[in-house]
Specification:
The complex is a heterodimer. Chain A is α/β, with parallel strands linked by helices. Chain A has 19 helices and 31 strands. Helix content of chain A is 27%, strand content 24%. In chain A, a hairpin with a 5-residue loop joins β16 and β17. In chain B, a hairpin with a 2-residue loop joins β2 and β3. The radius of gyration of chain B is 20 Å and the shape is globular. The chains are: A alpha/beta, B alpha+beta. At the A-B interface, α1, α3, β6 and α17 of A face β1, α1, α3, α4 and α5 of B.
């Protein structure tokens, strides 16, 4: 191949290194008004009255709106339409939006927010999973779900779990907690809207123009053809810009009222409260193994602290139980999940969406089982690895799988088994897997998940696709695939992306779906275009390789007229035959293996990460430079979550809503990362490619904890591994107590009766059902 | 403590708010040397350099991540030294040489650091990139052969959430090699 597989610069690199990329807050239209949002100071309260009369009298204020102006509810999932752009009845977390102002100056808008008088009846806030399971003192946070403040239950059993446990020679139970944390994109959310001739145009820092488009249509009560959503240059998402947000709806409404462009850029503090980040998850896991370490059955329970609204929470809940089986062959599996509402900013998808927490629990749990039965943890895990081209007990279809090779690469490179032993030094190993895009859309439909159009005229090539470049390289993947097929360079391809008026659909940059889905759509469109060019050239009596691209395009345009082709991608229907089977299936899974090397100071509890070796099965690296960048960035984010990042609250207030106090790794904290790209050439991926952006985060936190145990002989069963937890675990070890820091118990949760699902037959086809 | 308390927020005197919003903003005439260009401006004296660059001079290459001096995103060079534009007042900066990302290339010729960042994938979302490029340029002007730990130290005030910093370190080293 000519350009696929080459470490070429990103196609948007020049704009990024010169400061010329236009992010949403950089866009200034003539007569733009500034918007500020009044937010709740209470975690839980009924709104008795809102008086905006004083604010409206302030000179420079052009509009003040409340929930009465935007009463229609929205939400990313069809089953949880529970948010309002502005709340006028009840607030559910500190930061819930109540009113919005458009004014000529930002400071006037802020002063007008201060002049809005709101009367509250303050309600008892619910601030923990345990509290949410109890009968509320005042009233429930949401008026759906239940009992109490439970949002969602899942209870599924695949195969005969009790029989599996009775076959086991050893059974172990553990409890783990993964604290919540947030995306912390460098760019604050920002949106600017304009309204001309009955049509709204919104530029936004979003990962999903299509879902914003849908939410706007619903809340503004405008047909989708009256709304245009454009993804501005994007300053970092990591899942945090994957919901439709209140400010996006508000600026459109204010623009419709004032007839002027309106912009809203959140402050950094508001970004912490907008959140939609990693759910805090409490987990209990019980596994049976034979004497030689083969898993006979597993029972996994999760309890997710969801915050105040649904967001992606139903999917997140399923994800805490879905992918355990995609790495290990578990013959019988029971999963019980529960998400609760609390009076905190809503949680949602962050890099790995719902799977880093169970991955942390699972990997450490298996590590402990290996210690129990006197087996090397790497060997125990290897004995249970899934095999390629199989179906898991919960019906997930596994095709290409590079687990063995990934493991070999990092174990060999790190000299894991012949490491030197010195006090305070340790190494830990973990593996993981992630989706290459969700197999089902967020709202049920039979349409393609991604579509690409290509236009060629007089030698110029333009590719159109709704895919959203968020820094991960989505534009580069599109350009590279089109260039490969047409015999050009990626820089020869003009791109029009993420614009609901001018580009065909792509569902957006989430669930690691772009390379696989938009990539396949681009491949189809480009191959059709190539076929037209070849036909025209050959009709002229020459060969395609004997003419320039420009000549070929002129011949084809003369022969066929306007040269456009299109391609689309719809995932295969591979979900299992049970309710809830829509979360988990993916056309392909990526695989990762990781070794972390640490020095742990028993005196201070400080953990220093010396080096990380990571191997990632990406199927095929369309651009190895960008794959490495995704892997390194994932390792970085995994280390931040493992060691320091924490979204925690006191009386409803975020403890650390600033970039200084919310600790994230700096240049000085980041160790050397040695990345190995493993290529398994997936049968359905474009040129065999799978995902790279999320999976490599997953093995990092458990590998850190395994390394800490290797170094100090204590288990830290709770993320993040802060120095005080290490010190406390060492103190317990010294006193002869269990050498561990972590949750003591899993609360009694009234899960509903388990739905029993027959596992797929042994010879189940791996093709579509 | 939360049980059924009823009170109002924002009971600030409305007249006082009127006065605050309407107060006469003191404006000053300034001459700033930005990217070698002398620019005369009339701006409110309390506006930060970050705001003046972005809003009054349309130099939107300078980004903001916190506006509190915590993330390094808004880094510019003042007389060649990296400083946080969100914490500077333009009134302090007359007669000083201000360099923003727009002044880093020589016309259309990119600075070797910009070339290296593009080649090695050191810019993903690109939002922290202008600040890091300027901080790195200042480092290389002072120390043309920095060790990797010296680069880490020099850039430790600039947060990046995409790259894990690895490719940025490699790009600074590549540019340093080429500049020698």
């Amino acid at each position: 191949m000519r350009v696929v597989g080459k470490p070429l610069p990103k196609v948007d690199a020049a704009a990024k290194v010169t400061g010329r990329a236009l992010y949403a807050d950089d866009i200034a239209l003539p007569r733009t008004l500034h918007c500020k949002i009044l937010r709740s100071p209470h975690p839980h309260a009924r709104i008795l009255s809102i008086d905006t009369s004083a604010a409206k009298r302030i000179p420079g204020v052009l509009a003040v709106i409340t929930g009465l102006d935007l009463p229609i509810k929205f939400g990313i999932l069809p089953v949880t339409q529970d948010e309002r752009a502005l709340e006028h009845e009840k607030v559910r977390y500190v930061g819930d939006p109540i009113a919005a102002v458009a004014a000529t100056e930002e400071e006037i808008a802020a002063a007008a927010c201060d002049a809005i008088a709101v009367e509250y009846e303050v309600l008892e806030p619910v601030m923990s999973i345990e509290a949410a399971l109890q009968t509320p003192k005042d009233e429930r946070i949401q008026d759906y779900g239940g009992p109490n403040n439970v949002h969602k239950f899942v209870a599924l059993e695949f195969g005969d779990v009790d029989a599996g446990f009775s076959r086991a020679d050893h059974v172990r139970e553990d409890v783990f907690f993964f604290q919540g944390n947030t995306h912390l994109p460098m760019e604050q959310h920002s949106a600017i809207a304009t309204y001309v001739d009955g049509k709204v145009t919104l530029w936004s820092s979003t990962q999903v123009v299509h879902y914003v488009h849908r939410a706007l249509s619903k809340v503004l009560e405008l047909p989708m053809n009256r709304i245009r959503v454009i993804g501005a240059a994007h300053g970092g998402g990591f899942g945090g810009k994957t919901d439709p947000f209140a400010h996006e709806i508000i600026v459109c409404k204010l623009s419709m009222i004032t007839g002027r462009p309106v912009k809203c850029t959140l402050t950094r503090e508001e970004v912490f409260y907008a959140h939609r980040g990693r759910h805090p998850v409490l987990m209990w896991v019980r596994t049976g193994v034979t004497r030689d370490g083969r898993i006979t059955a597993m029972h996994f329970r999760s309890a997710l602290d969801g915050g105040a609204y649904g967001s992606y929470g139903v999917a997140s809940t399923f994800y805490t139980g879905a992918l355990q089986t995609v790495t290990y062959d578990i013959p019988a599996y029971r999963f019980e999940g529960c998400r609760v509402f609390t009076n905190k900013p809503p949680c949602g998808p962050k890099r790995g969406h719902g799977t880093p927490q169970p991955r942390f629990a699972l990997e450490l749990h298996l590590e402990k089982i290996a210690h129990d039965i006197g087996l090397d943890p790497v060997e125990l895990k290897r004995r249970n690895f899934v095999q390629p081209n199989t179906r898991t007990v919960n019906w997930l279809r596994v095709t290409s799988c590079g687990l063995e090779e990934c493991t070999d690469r990092v174990i060999d490179a790190s000299r894991f088994h012949d490491r030197e032993r010195r006090p305070g030094h340790g190494m830990g190993f973990a593996i993981s897997s992630y989706l290459s895009g969700a197999g089902t859309a967020i709202y049920w439909n039979d349409m393609p998940h991604s579509e690409v159009q290509i236009k060629v005229d007089r030698g110029g090539v333009t590719a159109y696709c709704g895919a959203m470049e968020i820094g991960q390289g989505s534009d580069s993947v599109l350009a590279t695939i089109v260039a490969e097929e047409l015999g050009l360079q990626p820089s020869d391809i003009r791109l029009v992306t993420a614009d609901t008026d001018t580009t065909p659909i792509d569902l957006g940059s989430y669930s690691s779906r772009v390379t696989f889905m938009a990539g396949n759509a681009a491949l189809e469109a480009a191959r059709k275009m190539r076929a037209l060019l070849v036909e025209a050239v050959e009709a002229s009596g020459r060969g395609f390789d004997d003419v320039t691209f420009e000549e070929a395009s002129v011949l084809a345009e003369a022969r066929f007229g306007t040269l456009t082709t299109a391609g689309s991608y719809t995932p295969p229907k591979i979900a299992g035959p049970y309710k809830g089977s829509g979360v988990g299936p993916s056309p392909a899974y990526s695989y990762s293996a990781c070794v972390v090397d640490v020095d742990a100071d028993a005196r201070t509890g400080l953990i220093r990460v010396n080096k990380v070796w990571i191997a990632h099965d990406v199927g095929r690296a369309i651009n190895p430079l960008l794959v490495e960048g995704q892997v390194e960035g994932s390792v970085y984010m995994g280390l931040g979550e493992a060691l320091m990042e924490e979204q925690a609250f006191r009386k409803g207030l975020h403890k650390w809503p600033s970039m200084l106090e919310y600790k994230s790794p700096t240049f000085l904290d980041m160790p050397e990362v040695e990345t190995f790209i493993v290529e398994t050439i997936d049968p359905e991926g474009p040129y065999g490619a799978k995902e790279a952006g999320q999976g490599p985060l997953l093995p990092v936190p458990p590998a850190v904890c395994a390394a800490v145990h290797d170094a100090l002989g204590v288990w830290i069963d709770e993320i993040p591994v802060t120095p005080e937890k290490v010190i406390e675990a060492l103190r317990r070890k010294e006193k002869g107590e269990p050498p561990r820091y972590g949750p003591q118990r899993f609360p009694p949760i009234p899960y509903p009766p388990t739905i029993k699902v027959e596992p797929p037959p042994k010879d189940a086809a791996i093709t579509a059902i | 403590m939360y049980a059924n308390a009823v009170f109002t927020l924002s009971n600030k005197d409305v007249n006082q708010l009127h006065r605050e919003a309407l107060r006469d903003v003191e404006r000053v005439v300034l001459t700033l040397d930005v990217n070698g260009e002398a620019r005369q401006l009339l701006v409110p004296s309390h506006k930060t350099l970050l705001e003046v660059l972005r809003e009054d001079m349309q130099l939107t290459g300078t980004k903001h991540g916190c506006e509190l001096g915590e993330c390094g995103t808004c880094t510019v060079l003042i007389d060649g030294k990296p400083q946080l534009s969100c914490l500077l007042l333009p009134i302090q900066l007359q007669g000083r040489a201000i360099t923003t990302i727009e002044g880093m290339a020589n016309g259309s010729d990119l600075h070797p650091l910009q070339v290296a960042f593009a080649e090695l994938g050191a810019a993903q979302c690109g939002y922290c990139t202008p600040g890091i490029l300027l901080a790195a340029r200042s480092l290389l002007e002072e120390n043309p052969r920095p060790a990797r730990d010296e680069i880490r130290e020099a850039l430790a005030g600039n947060l990046c959430r995409c790259t894990g910093y690895t490719k940025i370190l490699q790009a600074v080293e590549l540019a340093a090699d080429r500049l020698r």
